[in-house]
Each structure stands twice: as structure tokens, then as C-alpha cells.
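Lab notebook: predicted structure, single chain.

Context: the supervisor wants predicted structures on file for every construct in the current expression panel, including those that have not yet been purified. This is the next one on the list. No modifications to the sequence; it matches the entry in the shared construct table.
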Amino acid sequence: MFQWFKEPNINFMAPRRFFLALSALGCLAGVYACVLLWQGKANLGTDFGAGVLLRLSSGKSVGIDQVRQTLKAEGYPDAEIQQVSDETAKRFPLIIKIKYDPSKPVGSLGDELVGLFNKTFPDSQFALDGSDEVGPAVSEKLRDDAFKAFFLSMLGILIYIVVRFKKFEFGVSAVITTIHDILVILGIVVLTHREFNLLQVTALLTLAGYSLNDTVVTFDRIRENMRLLVKDRSFIQLVNLSVNETLSRTINTSGTVFLTLLPLCIMGGDTLKDFALTLLLGVVVGTYSSIFVASPILVEWDLASRPQPAQPQVVSK
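Prediction complete. Output recorded below exactly as produced.
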């Protein structure tokens, strides 16, 4: 394996409390993002926010402002409009997302808007390329199922780590680290107003597995060094040594995944770009957390579990 550092001896644990505090702020942003998601105030896709997603195209380019004014006059002031850039397409793609309206028959809105646009812009020749429609009951179930999937995955991670390492603190540290990664990425996605849909949930759960893999490698080296060097070094020294020993492997693995995802972020389609960007950010955050979150939690746990020296008693005369 290519070694970026011949024999690294970086004291990663010295600034651990600073990075733990920084990570806590990132988690708070993620918690706030969860509240926005639960209240429906985030940019939800039709999977989680009841509504209709229409994919239209026209033979002639029409400005988004003109389309927005037309929809506003028709009674859709909150419609979200996105013009897709595709140089190879012969027509001009347009994506419109409209909130669920129970008064409209299922599947009727697309044909209604196509007729409206063709009447307003007679030279544009609008056509309906596809539509997705999700009612409030279905979107609520999908949202609940996403939270259940997250909870079950965290429980599975805890059980797996505890069984593998036979140490409860290793399992708790791995779960906290994984939750940290998901919350930080969730905060970035939601607070930058990117659309949150089932594809983003897939990306987050994929990141949970990736982050866990990186954490397990570091924890495995810590466990091995505890058996071999526990008499010669303190626990914090063992953790520092283990992180340094796995540093090149972590950089190689993360760098390979990063370089694979980067072209997808730059050249992928609009839907694929958001998915790839979430994975790309997750690789960076997952690499950071395996060094500056997972291992420091173990160190703090060890320090807290050690018996405190007895304070000398002052005897008053």
C-alpha cells in the first residue's frame, strides 16, 4: 500500500476537545435540520412532501419568470420551477413542483398545465414528459419509514460493534460517530436548501456504512495495540499510535472514493449531482470523524472511567 507518511507521529488527541466541540456544533445544525424536515419546512421532494412533480419540455425556450408569473396567475404562487440544462436535448426540459391539491383529480394537473402553457406561449409547443404524484398519507409513511430505517441501522451498528470488539464503549463510540456524520451531512443538505428525497436517504445510509468501515479499521488497530503494548503505553498513547498507523490507509481509501465521485458531481445530471455531492461530502466528514470524533470519544470515555485520585483532607485544628 502506498504510504503518504513513512512513520507519522502526529498527536491527534491533543486538540481532541476542540474538535469534539466543533463536531457538536455540526450535530446541532443537523438536529435543527431534522426539525425542519419533521415540520415540512425543508425543501422536500415529492417523496416526503405531498405534491406533484411535473417534467415538461418545450420546443422554444421560455423564461422561468414568465412561467412563474403564469402559474401565479393560475393560483400556484408557491410552485417551484427548475430549468434543466441539457445541451444535447433537442427540446427545453422544465421541472415544476407543486404542492398537493386535494381538489384536483389524480393525474390531471400535468395535462392542465400543458394546455395552459400552450395557450399562453403558443409558439413553445409544451409537452408532458412525465409526472410523479404523492398524497399526504403516502409521503407521511415514507418519512416515518425513513426514520425507522435510520434507527434500525444504528441499532444494528451498535450490536455489531459490541459483538465484534466485546467492548460496549467501542459500540457506543461507533454509533455516536455515525450519527454525527449523518447529522452533519443532513444539516448541509437541508440548510443549503437542496431537495431532500428518498435518493438522499439512500446516500445517507450508504455513508453510514462507509463511515462505520473506516471507524472499524481504526478500532481494530486500537484493540490489537491494546493487547501488544498495553504495558508500555497509556491508552491515549495507544490511540494516537493506532490512528497514525492507519492514517495512510484512511487517506488512500477516502481519496480513491473522492476522485470517483468528483466527476459525477461535475458532469452528472441534475438528480445525480445532488446524490453524488452528498456522498462526496460524506466521504470528507467520515474521514474526519474516524480520526477526530470516534477515537477522542474512546479517550474521553477511558479518562472518565478511571478512578479519580483521592483529594487530601484538610484537618482543621
